[in-house]
Amino acid sequence: MAKTLFEKIWEKHVVKNIEGGPSVLYIDKHFIHEVTSPQAFRGLEQRGLKVLRPKQVVATVDHNVPTINQHLPIREELSRKQVQTLKENCEKFGIELYGLGHPFQGIVHIIGPELGVTQPGMTIVCGDSHTSTHGAFGTIAFGIGTSEVEMVLATQCLMHSKPKLMRINVEGTLNKGVVSKDIILYIISKISASGATGYAVEYAGSAIRNLSMEARMTICNMSIEMGARCGMIAPDETTFNYIRGRKFAPQDEAWDKALTYWKTLYSDDDAKFDNELFIKAEDIEPMITYGTNPGMGMGITGHVPELSEIDVKEKSSYEKSLHYMGLEPGALMKGKKVDYVFIGSCTNARIEDLRMVASFVKGKHKADDVEVWIVPGSKQVEKQAMEEGINTIFEEAGFVLRQPGCSACLGMNEDKIPAGKYCISTSNRNFEGRQGPNARTFLASPLTAAAAAITGKVTDVREMLV
Amino acid sequence: MSKQINIITSTVVPVNIENIDTDQIIPARFLKATTRDGFGKNLFRDWRYENDDESKPKNFPLNDPRYSGKILVAAKNFGCGSSREHAAWAIKDYGFDVVVSSFFADIFKNNALNNFLLPVVVSEDFLQKIFTAVEADPTTELEVNLEEQTIKLLGSRIPSSNIDLGKGESFDINHYKKTCLLNGYDDIDYLINMKKDIEAFEAALA
Question: Is the whole model's pTM more than 0.95, yes or no?
Answer without folding.
Answer: yes
